[in-house]
Amino acid sequence: MLKEINDLNLVNNLSDYQVSFNQFNQVLGFFLNDNLIGFVDYSIIYDRLEINYIFVKEEYRKQKVAYRLLKYIIDNYNYQNITLEVNINNIPAINLYQKLGFKIVATRPKYYNGVDGYLMERRIS
Ligand SMILES: CC(C)(COP(=O)(O)OP(=O)(O)OC[C@H]1O[C@@H](n2cnc3c(N)ncnc32)[C@H](O)[C@@H]1OP(=O)(O)O)[C@@H](O)C(=O)NCCC(=O)NCCS
């Protein structure tokens, strides 16, 4: 079950990534029997949507949880342009994004502690 999360403790206990709310971002959680097993942190910045981070608990990976979280956002917000940054070595995440129609549009040199990142974009023309 997908549900918006407002309780930061809930989401910040799941992974090393720490969400903090600002005027733009929201968190969508994936719950299984009332337990949070994954989330996506995303920002709506005027006319564009940016994926900040997506995470699925290790034991629930490869079961389409991340796919369903992102698909929900893609289907429920009618944004022309969705962007994200990803470490060039993060093959699972790159594959996930490509599966959902994201394309690599630029390389961000040394974006992650000295490792390059890709800027990926999903654009509806
Ligand atoms: C990346 C991550 C969110 C994927 O979550 P997931 O729920 O396991 O992904 P899904 O089951 O929805 O996978 C959808 C597609 O992504 C790709 N994918 C997912 N895991 C993969 C892996 N280990 N190796 C290769 N491709 C993978 C595949 O294309 C997959 O489709 P398929 O199952 O038909 O092959 C998860 O591995 C994770 O939490 N990683 C740590 C955090 C992270 O790196 N987040 C991204 C930051 S930018």
CATH architectural designation: 3-Layer(aba) Sandwich
Please give the CATH class.
Alpha Beta
So what's the overall shape? globular
Percentage of residues in DSSP E strands: over 45%
In spatial order, strands of the major sheet run 1-2-3-4-5-7-6
CATH superfamily: Gcn5-related N-acetyltransferase (GNAT)
Order of helices and strands: EHEEEHEHEE
Number of separate strands:
7
Task: State the share of residues found in helices, binned by percent.
Answer: 10-25%
Q: Give the distance, in angstroms, between the N- and C-terminal Cα atoms.
A: 31 Å
**What's the structural domain tally?**
1
Ions, cofactors and other ligands present here are: coenzyme A
Mean pLDDT: 96
Give a concise summary.
The chain has 125 residues and is of the alpha+beta class. It has helices at residues 8-12, 65-76, 91-99; strands at residues 2-5, 25-32, 35-45, 48-56, 81-87, 103-112, 115-123. The longest helix is centred in the middle third of the chain and has 12 residues, at 65-76.
